[in-house]
Amino acid sequence: MPCRTFCRVPARLACIGLWLGAAAIAAPAMAAPQGSASAADETAHTAAAVKAVDQHWLEAEESGDAAWLDSMLLPDYRSVGVAGTFATKAGIVAHAAKNRGSDKMKQQVAAWQAAHPVDQQVTLQGDTAILSFISAAPATKGKLYSSDVFVYADGRWRALYSAHTELGKD
């Protein structure tokens, strides 16, 4: 399972299959799906928009929206796991497509999130944003799970890189 979803929830659930065993082009394509928790304008040049795109990313992986993921992930996107392994855009998109029509991933995400509360911090510098997932659990409060790097290009936020730490390995 490509690394992204669980570690990125922080940094996502596609990672958990990998890490539990060892331990997300047009502006309309960026609109949040109906019923989405992503209420902020995903095209804004703001921290709120970065968080909204990230939430949409999670929802796209859960629901199998491979087309949206393909448009949001930059061609050279990489997600680096705790063991130094990496997942590519193609791997993440292919894995997400397998979730279409199933709520299994959504259930796994909800369970993981309940057990691993996080705070999100966005750092903006020009057209680059770093979204960090920081543990909010008492035993590990303040420690980093993962970070995602987004680039504002063509009027929207697109993911370039993600990195995950041992904290999300479980």
Q: Could you characterize what this model shows?
A:
Strands 3-2-7-6-5-4 form a six-stranded mixed beta sheet. The protein is globular, with a radius of gyration of 14 Å. 43% of the residues are buried. With 170 residues, it is α+β, with helices and mostly antiparallel strands. The protein is 34% helix and 28% strand. The two termini are 16 Å apart. The N terminus is likely disordered.
Number of domains in the coordinates?
1
The CATH topology corresponds to Nuclear Transport Factor 2, Chain: A
Radius of gyration, in angstroms, nearest whole number: 14 Å
Task: Give the strand content.
Answer: 25-35%
Supply the CATH architecture: Roll
Q: What is the overall silhouette?
A: globular
Spatially, the strands of the biggest sheet line up as 3-2-7-6-5-4
Which percent bin holds the helix content? 25-40%
| Structural class by helix and strand composition | alpha+beta
Q: Given the structure, what is the number of helices?
A: 6
Largest sheet: 6 strands, mixed
Mean pLDDT: 78
Number of strands: 7
Oligomerization state of this entry? single chain
